[in-house]
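[job 4471] stage=fold_predict status=RUNNING
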Amino acid sequence: MISTTGLCLLAGSRAPAVARPTPAFPPASGVTVILGSQWGDEGKGKLVDILAANADVCARCAGGNNAGHTIVVADGKNGKVKYDFHMLPSGLVNPNCTGFIGNGVVIHIPSFFSELEKIEAQGLDCTDRLFISDRAQLVFDFHQIVDGLKEVELGGSSIGTTRKGIGPAYSSKASRSGLRVHHLLANDNGNSFADKFRKLVEGRFKRYGHFEYDTEAEIARYKVLAERLRPYVVDGVTWIHQALSQGKRILVEGANALMLDIDFGTYPFVTSSSTAIGGVLTGLGLPPKDIGRTIGVVKAYTTRVGGGPFPTELLDDIGSHLQEVGAEWGVTTGRRRRCGWLDLVVLKYSHAINGYDVLNLTKLDVLDGLAEIKVGVAYEVGGVELPGFPADLDVLAEVTVRYVTLPGWQTSIAQCRTFEELPEKCREYVLFIEKELGVQCAWIGVGPARDSMIVR
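[job 4471] inference complete, writing structure tokens
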């Protein structure tokens, strides 16, 4: 049986919203989508936190616990509290917002409960405001083992995955052998789940040999987890459409970013799901007409975790400076992020696919104090400018980036709260980005705190 609690909850009363800087939520938009426009780690979680103050639902539509969003919240008693989200919608920081995990997400149930327990220990009560689609795929421990085996097998060509089992889980889904949440909750004492699970594991044994894994112990563990999970599970399509029919405002929190998309990213150095706007529709069961506003989150420079091409990467002191000042290490992996200049070829490509209505420019303060700032504006091969971002990584490896050099600013912008308060050269940098992309930077991040955001 699937829980109907979440459906009833949507019609319930709401407590007063938490005080925070909140730009007006787009009127009558139905669904607002926040997407990463580069290679991830753009700072999407902070904007989600701000907009979630006026949202009824915050939804995840793709990926799994390979994602990582950090939110810093001021606490009158303890100073500041930092919440690290991986699988759960980070809009849960707002106690009036309901979290929803859609069918496009792959869920490792032990990690789901571990993350839930951690944020509840930090003071967030998620009782009756967190729900999972019954169509979501499951990630098992053996998927994580296989993830590591695949990386070892690839050797020097390894992709640099998070080893959370995300790729192998999506592989099971694509081969139609994966298990979904509703399989775990079937009313037959777990027998059909157990049979399907044994077949799934046996298939992996045939591919990778009999690696150490106790199939029967895992079945027993999941029978226990099933009852614990049951109250969170709903018919996801019915749930999300009932929310829309009730006029609820839905905020979609994209995971990863466009340049990690399985189709449009730097394949094969990508994630295993659709991180573009199309993944929102298929990952939640929504029609295009219900998308009211798409917001692209852009870091003021570029970062990337793991392997793969990075045309504007800086391997000098400036790259190290951005890494240190920007605290560039992964929320999920702890790995240092590679850093480089802003790449407008990437951003124009990203905008062409996702169609951003507005942008959130983040971590602009990290550029404080630089004498000059470069922006990649075109790729050339053999002196000929490429018309766009190439699919062929061999071509990408040969590109020469053409840069525009802009003057930096020598003062801190951390306390600026209006666009006019920014130094002139800083404003020129923002306006240059807007002119090149044809999209306004409606939000500008000038620090990690919740209120360190300029709203235009």
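[job 4471] summary: The radius of gyration is 22 Å.
[job 4471] exit 0
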